[in-house]
Every structure is written in structure tokens, then in C-alpha cells.
Amino acid sequence: MQTALLEMRGITKVYPNGVVANKDVHFSLREGEIHAIAGENGAGKSTLMKIMFGMEEPSDGEIVIKGEKVKLQSPQDAIDRGIGMVHQHFMLVPSFTVAENMVLGMEPRKGVGINYAEAVRMTEETARKYNLAVNPKAKVEDLTVGMKQKVEILKALLRGAKILILDEPTAVLTPQETEELFRELKQLREQGHTIVFISHKLKEVKAICDRITIMRGGGSEGVFETRDVSEQEISRLMVGRDVVLKYDKDQMAYGKPVLTVDQLEVNDPQGKALLSKISFSVRQGQIVGIAGVEGNGQTQLIEALTGGLHGVSSSGTVQVNGTDIREADILGIRKLGVSYIPEDRMRQGSAGEASISDNLISTRYRSKDMNKGVFLNGSRIASLAASLVEEFRVRCSGPAQPIGMLSGGNMQKVVVARECSTGPQLLIAEQPTRGVDIGAAQFIHQKLLELRSENCAVLLVSADLNEILEISDTLLVMYEGQIVAYFEEPSKVSEEELGLYMLGINRQDERQTGRAINHV
Amino acid sequence: MFKVKYFEIIRTTAVILIALAIAFLIISLVSDHPVKTIGIFLLEPLNSKAHIGNVIEMAIPLMFTGLAVSLLFRANMFNLGAEGIFYFSGVVTSVLAIHLTLSGSLHPVVAILAGSIVGALLSAIPGILKAKWNANELVTSLMFNNILFGIGLYLLNYHLRDAKAFANVSYKFEKTAQLSKIFQGTRIHTGLIIVLVLIVAAHLFLYKTKWGYELRMTGVNREFARYSGMKTAKVIILVHLIAGFIAGMGGSVEVLGMYNRFQWTSLPGYGLDGALVAMLAKNNPLSVIASALFLAYIRIGADLMARLSDVPSEMISIIQAVIILLISAEQFLKFWKNRMLLKEAKNA
Asked: Which spans are transmembrane here (chain B) (predicted)?
């Protein structure tokens, strides 16, 4: 029995809003292993890591490093003890060069200025030592996501990290970049580093990790040798029951096009093209998926469809049921029967301190049946909220509970319930299952399919390849603001093939992508 | 979640008790007869009909401004313009009370409505600046307080001033303009009824109508409100109009209810007190009644203490400062809440 390099005992974390993120969690790390923490989102993985990295203080419990009890009050404490973290959202200054980012906060000095040459040298030395090639003089904003991640890893290593925490490192990577990351991680392990790998992708966990700690509902379900457990068993432990990631989709006869985008071009204020020659349509009963590495125009496209073109220079047409919506505001677009599940449920999708019931009516409180004279119809709203909470299986103490106290998955269910229950003609779903647990994700997928069978047109934008290949009827791939591929049978496309299009290595000719639009 | 729900109430009570304890401590240091002085401070305001009347008279303007500020805070607008509007609407109403000749009950109605509408329009300016150009409403509203005070004082000095009076006060109001007293032996006037009606109306508006719903959602998360299709700029302008109307009405009612000449040569301070009332009331219209009464009670207590004992009424500023400090200190009693949360989580 090896002694533990780092141990967390009886960790409990309760946030001020009452959310219990961790409950009596035990975690132990051996030197020189790659240790996965797997669990659905909202299972408490990120909180546990934040505690390990000193970003959050546990409400209860203790942390022991090499047999010594420690209190980590800030990330600096953690860094001093050789713990480094690579966040899901990179903490880099885009306008600085790689070398400048590397030395941020520990700059080598020359008089009052920064010794830039020394910074470059340090970067090169670290890069060579760990065999991670980067260009120290490149600006971070020009780097690919994979490269940025490499810089983050080097940054932690430069600060003397022996334990490296990676929070969902593959979420933003293409399959090819993921493979490269795995090679690098294995190499780091050989050099004696210990890696904590947070993920909910079981294949990856199986591929690279030595041991796995499974979390569910804020607690630990136990620690296993990865080779002793099958994917099936892991997912059962994560969800608490068997998971089928296949859906029975019956063939639908598509109806008329609901959304038609024709030759849409959008430029930013400097005249740089954000979207060019975007043409596609979404028909009744059809789910059109849009895949692509984040930052290739998906956000701008969604904005263009949800009222963001108001006062922006653009050309082409965007029509919902024949009405041009380029100049329409959000309310006007919603009145056409468009629902929208936004990517960021905290910033846009919900009002945290307001009740679940208040959050459920935000798109329909104006309607006649929600009002009685000048007043809102309280009893109608209450019964609507109660039935939606039940139908969408939102785990809460009741519709009056503030939505901010719910877990990510349940919060997302409220958002989905609101957007799906107004009888939409077109549903735009942007990363609808990001950061939610598998159980909730499945439920949301089923709701999307239900809407499809009710003849709703669905536009699904997702970075989750598994989801998009499984759910979509047709699939578009976006790269640098353009549509570069169109597939009619997404389930027959492999992730690797898709990856080539997402990276811009392959692209179809216009004759092929042109089939995406269905002229009336 | 049972206990945590009451956390805010417990916290507010604790804050008030601590502030009072500090007041007692200081009184016992300053006064030669501390027990007697504390007795005066706590009991004298409730000792006679006239004193209770004083408390309620003082609570009326506090309720107006507290309500106005509560609505603004609810929309997440940190606007402290109630102060200048309260003052300026008082001036406007005074002009009409002096120069207008109208029969009986119509006179105060016209004068008060005029003051309220002017208040609403003035308040809309920072609202529009915020909604259209995102100008910080705290800065613009505070600047407006100065501007309105300057203009008001100019009007008093050069157009309304009664040369025959011995102080810097306006001409006398017409008798028809003044609000009638509703309880004999006190100066409590019909303004009390007006403000209570307003408070109930604001409560219904905020929690039971779609406009109130828009206001609350905009306040909690403007981005969410926008995404849902609400026109948040309109909501922000609307809440400014309403709050300005209420604050303006407060100034008008105060002038006609309590005085027979306009005589404020400095800002009366009710607008800023309104922010304190709103904070104590957690921006709930109905709670404004209790928090305004509480504030009025300790103010009158301090006044009486100054008159009947050897402790000056400035005492009360210390109590107020402690209350504001502790209420706005979000970390206060956090540890206790965290412990409570932990216990509940473990029991769950």
C-alpha cells in the first residue's frame, strides 16, 4: 500500500445559498498516477477541485499533503505546495505573448522593467524540459484552443506544480487535439507528475487514467482501479442506474421550412467577416445540428437568429415562416413562435434570486390566460408552474424556491421547460446539455425529440459531438464563420471524420453544402 | 431550509439590537443619570398621544421616500435622487399653495398632483440616461439633488420669500391648500392615509401585475429580462417615473401637511433616510411601514432625550450609522449562517 501524496478527508462544502456541493467526500491521490474524477455535472467534482486548489474553503473536513495537515486559503497556498490547475475556461491574457503569460505574477525583472528575453528563455526551457512545443513569442489570441491549453499546463509546471489538476480538459478539444493531450499527460506521468483528470467522458477516463474516483450527488461513490471497471459500471455508478445513449428516432416526414437563412453575411464593426455566405433551412419536424470548435461563428449565428442583428451591418435574409427577422427585436422574434435555450443559463437563461415559478413564466406572462384584468392570474401561474416542475422532474422544494439554489441540471430543466412548453414553431437550442448530469441530459434530449415529433423545427448547436451525432437529422459543420460541410445521416459520420472538418482540414464544395438550404 | 429562510429577519433584528446596545453604552458614558436617560429614549415617545403623534408624523415622509427608494432598489437601480425630488416638489407645491385660488378639497389635490408629476418627470432624466446610455444612476441622481436644491433655494429666495417674515420663509399658504388633521391632539394629517394606500398599491403592483413582474426580473437579472423579450430600458424608465412620482408626492404632502409656509433652507434629508428605510425593509413595500415607524421612533426618542436629559440628539446619528454599517456588511453573521447551513445539510 502506497502512502497518499494528498488526501482529502470528510470534505463538506455548503454554499451560502444553501447548495450542498460536497458531502463528506474522501479523496486520496497516489504519487505518479493519473487519477480521474468522474461524475455527472453537478456531482461536485469542480467544487472538490476548487477546494484542493485553495479557491474555496471547505465548510468541514481536512486536507493532508504528504502526511501534513494543511489549510489552503488561496491558490497561492496551493501553488506553494506544488499544486497547479488548468481551468476549463483558460486564465490567459489574450493580448499578451505566450512568454508574458507564462511569467505573469512572477516576472523576471531588469531594473524596473520586465526582462522579456529571460521570460522567453524560461518558457523555452520549460517547454523543452517537458517536451511541449510552444512558440514563446506568439500572441495568445492567435493560438488554437489546444495550444492555449498547452500554455496553461506549462504555466502550472513553471510554477513548480507536481500535482496537476485538469478541469474538463477535453471539452473544448477536437478528437485529434485530445489524442495529443493524452500523449503529453502520459509523458508528464513518466516524469513523476501526478495528474487529476476531471471528466464525464468515460472513454477518455478508460483510455488514460490509472484510478478513478466516482462522484454522485456531492458524495463519493468510491475509488476504483480503472482496469477493473467497465464503462458500463462506471456510468451506472455515476448515474445510479443504467444509461442508454441511443435514442429510438422514428423517421419523420419533414414539413415546410420554418427557418430559412439565405446568403447571410455579418461583419464586425471593423469590417471583418464574422459570418459569410451562410445558407441553410430548418424544416418542421427536423433537427438540424451545427457542430464546430467553439468560436467559429456559432455564437454570431445564434445572435443573428435571436435579435442580435438589430443595428448591425449584415446582408442576406433570415426568415421565420416567411417573415424577415433581421430587423426584429427579441419580443418580435419570440412572437413568431421562436424559443431559445441559451448557452449560459446563469447569465441569460435564469434570474437566480427569483423563484422557479417566476423563471417559468418569463416568456409568457403577457399572454391573456396568465392575466386577469390588470393583475396576473396567480392560481393559473401556480398550477402551470406545479405541472411543469412535475413534468420536467425538477428536483426542488417547490415552485417558490429560488432557482439559484438548484443544481445545474435542474436549473437547466427549468429553462428547457419554459422554452419547450410554449408550443414553439422553432426551437434554437444552444449547448442545451452543457454542464448538466447525464440523467438530465437524457431527459432534455428526449424533450427535443418530443418537440420534433410534434412538428417543431429544432436548431441544435453543440460542442458535444456525441450529442450532436445522435440527435440531429442533418448536420452542418461551421469553420471560421462558414458552413464547410453538410451531412444527411449524421449517425453514419465518425467523430474523427467530423474532426477533420471542424479543424478546417477538409471542406466540401459549395454544391454539397448548398443542399443545406431548402427553397420553398 | 427552514431556519435559513428566517436568516435575514434574524440578522436585521440582531443589527437593530446591537445598534441600540451601542446607544445605551454611549448614553451611560455621557449621561449623569443613564438609567433615566435610557428610559426617556425608549419610553417617552410612546408616553403620550402627542408623542405618538410625533412619531407617526415623522414616519409619513419616511414612508414616501422609503417606498420610492425600495422600488428603485428592486429594479437594481442605486438611485438616491429621492432627496432632491422631495425638496423640489415641495417647492412646486408651495407655489401652487400660495398663488392658486381653488375651492376646498380641490386645492391640495391639484397642488400635490402637480408636485408629484414634476417629481416623476425629473426622476425620469437619470432613468433615461441610465436606460439609453448606461450612465451611472447613482452619480446622476446625486448631482441632480444638488441642482434641484439650488433651483429650489433660488425660487424661495427671489420669488416666494415673504419679506415681512423674520426668517427665510415663503408667503403663507392659502388655508384651502393645507391638509386636514385626522386625529385630534396630534398633527397627523391625511397624508398618512395617502401613503398607506400607495404602499398597498405598490405591493399589488410589484407582486401581482405583469409590470411589477417585469420590474422584479429586470432587477434580478437584466440580461435575463432582455432575453425573455422584456424591454428593459422601458422598465427602467417606468420605475424612475413611479419612484419620482412617489417621492415628489411625499415632499408635497409633507409641506401641506406639516407647515403653513415653505421653510426648508437645506435639504431635509428624507430622501437619504428613505434609502435606510428601504434597506431595513429589504425593499418590500409593506415592510416599509414598520421600518419607517421604527426610524421615526428612535428619532423622536432622541429628540425627547435631548430636551429632557443631558444627552444631545446627535446620539441618534451613531445608531443610524451602526445600522447602515451592519446591514450593508454582507459578511456580518455569515459564519453563523454557514454553520446553520452545514447543520441542515448534514441532517438532510
From this structure: 12-31, 51-73, 85-102, 108-129, 138-156, 188-207, 235-256, 315-333
Given A362, A374, A401, which is nearest B217 (Cβ)? A362
Q: Determine the Cα–Cα distance for residues B81 and B73; give it in Å rounded to an integer.
A: 12
> Cβ contact (<8 Å) for A348 and B223?
yes
Judging contacts by C-beta atoms under 8 Å, the chain A residues touching residue B338 are: 14, 16, 59
Q: What domains can be seen in chain A, in order of their start residue?
A: 6-239 (3.40.50.300), 247-337+425-520 (3.40.50.300), 347-422 (no CATH)
Q: Does B1 touch chain A (CB under 8 A)?
A: yes
Give me the half-sphere count of Cα atoms (radius 13 Å) on the Cβ side of residue A92.
31
Minimal CA–CA distance to A290: which of A155, A139, A431? A431
The answer to whether the CB atoms of A362 and B224 lie below 8 A apart is yes
What is the spatial distance between Cα A294 and Cα A296, in angstroms, rounded to a whole number?
Answer: 6
Select from A12, A363, A365 the Cβ nearest to the Cβ of B345. A12
Contacts of A72 (CB under 8 A, 6+ apart): A51, A52, A53, A54, A57, A63, A78, A81
Listed residue (A400, A404, A345) closest to A17, CA to CA: A404
| Distance (Å) of CA B150 to CA A25, A60, A250, B97 | 64, 58, 75, 21
**In degrees rounded to 5, what are phi and psi of residue A121?**
-65, -45
Q: What is the CB neighbour count within 10 angstroms for residue A190?
A: 9
Amino acid letter, A342: P
> Which grid cell sits at A109?
525583472
Local structure of A282: helix, strand or coil: strand
Q: Where are the domains of chain B?
A: 60-292
| pLDDT by 10s per residue, chain A, length 520 | 457 899 999 999 887 766 678 889 999 999 999 999 988 766 788 889 999 999 988 888 999 998 889 998 999 999 999 999 998 778 889 889 999 999 888 888 888 888 889 999 999 999 888 888 889 999 988 888 788 888 999 999 999 899 999 988 887 777 888 888 999 999 999 999 999 998 877 788 888 999 999 988 788 888 999 999 888 788 788 876 655 557 777 777 899 999 999 999 998 877 778 899 999 999 999 999 999 877 788 989 999 999 888 767 788 999 999 999 988 899 999 999 999 999 888 889 999 889 999 999 999 999 988 999 899 999 999 999 999 999 999 988 889 988 987 877 889 999 999 999 999 999 999 989 876 777 888 899 999 999 999 999 999 998 778 888 889 999 999 988 999 999 998 888 888 888 888 888 888 988 888 888 876 5
User: Which three cell numbers mark B89?
Assistant: 416638489
Q: CB under 8 Å to A388, separation ≥6 — which residues?
A: A360, A394, A414, A417, A418, A421
Cβ distance of A16 and B220 shorter than 8 Å = no
Cα separation of A134 and A129, whole Å? 12
Question: What secondary structure does DSSP assign to B24-83, as a single string?
Answer: HHHHHHH-SSHHHHHHHHHHGGGTSHHHHHHHHHHHHHHHHHHHHHHHHHHTT----THH
Determine the Cα–Cα distance for residues A404 and A18; give it in Å rounded to an integer: 10
The gap from C-alpha A315 to its chain's centroid, in whole angstroms, comes to 31
- Return d(Cα A149, Cα A151) in angstroms, integer: 5
Q: For residue A359, which of B212, B223, B217 has the smallest C-alpha distance?
A: B217
Dihedrals phi, psi of B194, to nearest 5 degrees: -55, -45
Say yes or no for a CB contact (<8 Å) between A23 and B209: no
Q: What is the CA radius of gyration of chain A?
A: 24
Closest CA to A87 of A196, A193, A194, A160: A196
* Cell numbers given for B332: 456580518
